[in-house]
Amino acid sequence: MAGNSQAKVRPWKAKQKEQLRQEIIDIAIQLFEERGFGAVSVDEIAQRTGIAKGTFYLYFKSKADLIQSVLEKGLALLEAAVFHAIKHGEGDARSDLRNVMRAQLGFFEEHGYIITLLVSGRGSSAGDLPSDVWEELRVRYRAVTTSIYEGIISRAIGIGAYRQVDAHLAASILYGIVTGLLYESVDSGRPFPKILDTALDVFEKGVNRVA
Question: pTM of whole model > 0.85?
């Protein structure tokens, strides 16, 4: 009977531990959004969460481990946003590309702290995140976005809306354009939507079928 009682308790404890882990991540995100990765300490994260510093290390080996979890959560949210955009698209290449880019850029507009490491790599020299982990996350980010672009472009080529081009290369070019938009927004402070349509026009002039 005792063994069965313990078995019933364990799932509840596991759920409680996961809830606290997610709370630490969410608090860290709030602080990173306020001041960036480098300016926030483990002590501050623990204090804001209402736990002892030692408790923090029961859930994360280091600040770098926490940052990795934060970026992974950010990537999951970004993936959900862009997949939702394409799932509810109109089937028209231009509309679908615009919707995906808007979802992508809108995500970064809301979560700008992620740009400093995930996209631009700025701050990676601070030593908070190991270079191999940082690079792995960046590769994952690029793979998710370029694969969606490539799918849209390939379908457009298949129905004759775009001329015959290398869809993968075109997707990589579009990825570069979006990355440039992120740099532009960070450096100039200009909102993403104001430059999105211009960027898409520039891209499409190179792929539209000439009558």
Answer: no
DSSP letters for 101-125? HHHHHHHHHHSGGGIIIIIS-TTGG
Per-residue pLDDT tens over the stretch 184-199: 766 676 666 667 777 7
The residues near 85 (Cβ < 8 Å, ≥ 6 apart) are: 96, 99, 100, 102, 103
Sequence-distant (≥ 6) Cβ neighbours of residue 78 within 8 angstroms: 104, 107, 141, 144
Q: Does domain 62-211 have CATH number 3.30.420.40?
A: no
CA atoms lying within 13 Å on the CB side of residue 91:
2
Residues 6+ apart with CB under 8 A from 156: 93, 162, 207
Residue 201's identity, in one-letter code, is D
Rounded CA separation 86/91 (Å): 9
Residue carrying structure tokens 């792929």: 207
35: tokens are: 């001041």
Averaged pLDDT for residues 100-129: 68
Q: Which single residue is written with the structure tokens 């590769």? A: 139
- Evaluate if residue 123 carries a pLDDT over 50: no
Domain boundaries, the chain: 1-60, 62-211
Q: Which of 128, 114, 133, 136 is nearest to 63 (CA)?
A: 128
- Mention the CATH class of domain 1-60: mainly alpha
The whole-angstrom separation of Cα 134 and Cα 178 is 19
pLDDT at 99: 87
